[in-house]
Amino acid sequence: MANDLFRIAVVGAGETGTPLLRKLLAAPFVELAGVADLDPDAPGMRLAQHRGIMTTTSFLDLAALGETVDVLIDVTGVPAVREGLRKAMQETGNHHTVIVHEMVVQLMLSLLNGELVRLKHDAQDY
What we know:
- The protein contains five helices and five strands.
- The chain is α/β, with parallel strands linked by helices.
- A five-stranded parallel β-sheet has the order 3-2-1-4-5, sandwiched between helices.
- Helix 1 links the parallel strand 1 (6-11) and strand 2 (30-36).
- The N and C termini lie far apart (33 Å).
């Protein structure tokens, strides 16, 4: 089924998440539902706050948005975050939201740029 509007949430708002957030914010067919990062002052968190988008330091807050989110993008590179998101979806019975992790983001950004894009992660990660 085709979508006219994609409701997206992003976990990770540092060096990898911020460029992605800029692309998402510029797309008229994307509604950004929320952004999570451990650092409330991360560049992507400040960008989201400036645009009036919900921010949180707990990725579980984004998972709690349930089926109002179509795609939850995890660009932290942290396996525990990915597993926590999966567990939250299972526990709430959310079969609607798709979790996309950094490898898919890297592929999509590379295709868009016509060359391999290397993702960067802060030392702290999520």
